[in-house]
Design a protein that fits this description.
Layout: E1 3-8, H1 12-23, E2 31-36, H2 47-62, H3 82-90
């Protein structure tokens, strides 16, 4: 009997990507991937803090183990040039 893995996402494309990644390799066919959308609050913090909060919230909602994903947009001020930096600093 395959292992059931709960992937918490409301995004069908992310589900397809994760299914493709997990089904390639030695473990192919040894699990069944099920998705579920769990609404949660957005928090600010490090990538690690956000990931821990998201998976704990999801695990409580589904009543057990699950996996989640966290997408992060990060930038360094030194890489931004010209008007973008100027308008960001003024706002």
């Amino acid at each position: 009997m395959p292992l059931a893995i709960k992937f918490i996402t409301g995004n069908a494309n992310k589900l397809k990507e994760v299914a493709a990644i997990l089904s390639s390799g030695a473990s192919a066919g040894s699990f069944e991937l099920a998705s579920q959308d769990v609404p949660g609050d957005e928090i600010q913090g490090t990538t690690r803090e956000v990931a821990i909060h998201k998976v704990n919230t999801a695990a409580k909602a589904v009543g057990g183990a699950c996996i989640t994903e966290v997408s992060v947009v990060a930038f360094m001020m030194g890489l931004l040039q010209g008007r973008i930096v100027a308008s960001w600093r003024l706002s």
